[in-house]
Design goal:
Elements: H1 2-21, H2 23-26, H3 31-42, H4 49-61, H5 64-73, H6 82-105, H7 107-112, H8 114-134, E1 141-143, E2 155-157, H9 158-184, H10 190-193, H11 195-199
Antiparallel strand pairs: 1-2
The chain binds flavin-adenine dinucleotide (FAD).
Length: 205
């Protein structure tokens, strides 16, 4: 899950960096182009993303991910994060429902929708990890990045900043989890049943 998530995320970051920098991002004159190329191989070597999913989906459907999520949910968190923890609990319910549906459909269906299942589990795990960081007993003032970082008033609490990151991550992903659960539970098997009708005939050799 870590390799899959990090390598896909670094591609997203590299792609968006190039978009932000426009033509300068695309040209070889600057480092961005090199970062984008280097990012691209990470979803291919050392196990492609698809194969990481094939490996991870079994753990999601066999209860390993659920147990890990339950362990994370049982830890102590800051009370100010309670609304986020409720959203994660709701997401976990959706994951369980989705797993139950997929198990009824069989192994082929599990592989077809593996990415959605693994993405839901990762979003929940990451959400709890962010809440854990925002509940750290240790705190310190860090630069907010506003105003160039020249005076003490520009510092913010690191724990507060981590809570903001957790809030943003969990709120953004709550609707994504619901949408993924809906997709996985749609029962749509057209990739198996109507493949050639949808994409055109597969050429004979
Ligand atoms: C720069 C570079 C360095 C490398 N270095 C090393 C090295 O040091 N040691 C080493 O051992 N190897 C190395 N490799 C090989 C690398 O690990 C393989 O390229 C990689 O494992 C993918 O295998 P493949 O290229 O044969 O693609 P294929 O296995 O042919 O895959 C093609 C596509 O089909 C998908 N696919 C395949 N099987 C499935 C499946 N069951 N379900 C869903 N999708 C599937 C893949 O995800 C991929 O998108 C290197 C490759 C590169 C490009």
């Amino acid at each position: 899950m870590s390799k899959y998530y990090c390598s896909e995320m670094c591609n997203r970051v590299a792609y968006d960096s190039m978009q932000v920098l426009g033509g300068s991002g695309y040209m070889r004159d600057y480092a961005c182009e090199r970062h984008a190329r280097d990012a691209r191989i990470t979803t291919i070597y050392e196990g492609t993303s698809q194969l990481q999913i094939v490996a991870a989906v079994r753990g999601v459907c066999s209860g390993t991910a659920e147990r890990f999520i339950a362990e994370l949910a049982g830890q102590d968190y800051e009370p100010q994060l309670n609304d986020l923890l409720s959203k994660l609990a709701e997401g976990t319910k959706q994951l369980k429902k989705t797993i139950a549906f997929v198990k009824e459909q069989g192994t082929e269906y599990m592989d077809l929708y593996g990415r959605g299942l693994v993405d839901i589990a990762i979003d929940l795990i990451n959400g709890y990890l962010f809440c854990g960081q925002a509940s750290s007993k240790f705190d310190m003032a860090v630069w907010s990045g506003e105003g160039g970082g020249t005076s003490e008033s520009e510092k913010v609490s690191m724990r507060q900043r981590k809570a903001m990151v957790a809030r943003r991550y969990i709120n953004t992903n709550a609707s994504k989890i619901a949408a993924l659960a809906g997709l996985v539970c749609s029962g749509d098997k057209s990739t198996f049943t109507d493949y050639e009708a949808l994409i055109g005939p597969i050429p004979a050799e």
